[in-house]
Amino acid sequence: MFLRFGWNHNLTFVLSPSKNDFKYPNIISLTEGMTQKNTLPPPEGKHNDILCNHVVYNRTSFRKYMPNETFFVGILREPYEYFKSVLKYLRPDYIFKKINTSLPVSEYLKDPRKYEPKSPAMSFTNNRLAFEFGCTADVIDSSDAKQIIQFVKSVDSDFGLVIITELFEESIVLLRRYLNWSTKDVIYLDKNIAKNKNTTSFVDPFDRQLYKRWAKVDYALYEYFYRRLRDQIRREGDDFDEELLHFAENRKMASEFFVAPVRRIQSPIAN
Prior knowledge:
Layout: H1 2-8, H2 59-65, E1 73-76, H3 79-89, H4 93-96, H5 104-110, H6 128-132, H7 137-142, H8 145-158, E2 161-164, H9 168-179, H10 183-186, H11 207-214, H12 216-235, H13 239-258
Helix pairs in contact: 5-11, 8-12, 9-13
């Protein structure tokens, strides 16, 4: 969506060098914010307009590389659902190889610190959502309530919108309004959706509560921004639900259009 908008409007993207430490071109860094080493400078006479590749949020570096008027957008997923996705697709060695039991995830959750890498930057299961929003290792390690609140408030002040995966269509309609884009600008098709979402083979029914106890910062962040998104939607007024319905219909038409025979050439999407 952001790539399409930038391409259509001849905007400048923040990009990583062609040769970086990661296998995917859409990753700038999984461990730190933007630096001179992990990003390319904009063309002469231009400035960066859009950053939509993966990088850890850092207030100082983002303000160094992005214009002052930048509107910051983030995304969060329900932490336990995110955790299960990590287990399924990344299968961390410190859980699945180091723990030799029939229920390694449950064993891990009894005492995560026993198995976790020393640095949260090297982990995808230690409050990873908060880490990617710029939470420091000392806050994650201490789980101090006051520090967590301070961290959440700092994210709240920096990000104009945090998309909630469980309210994705609502989030995108709100994004369209905040950025004053057209419906065409925000139409998307589902991609990389897991056909088999069954993750029950390696988790126990009680694991959710154990994980919630472990991922305190992630849950504080998610629950705050879930409520904030609901409040933002409520402030939009009655016509928001009408636009949401219209958007869902347009998405359905777009999906049908792009899987239809080539002979159909007129776009069905209204502005």
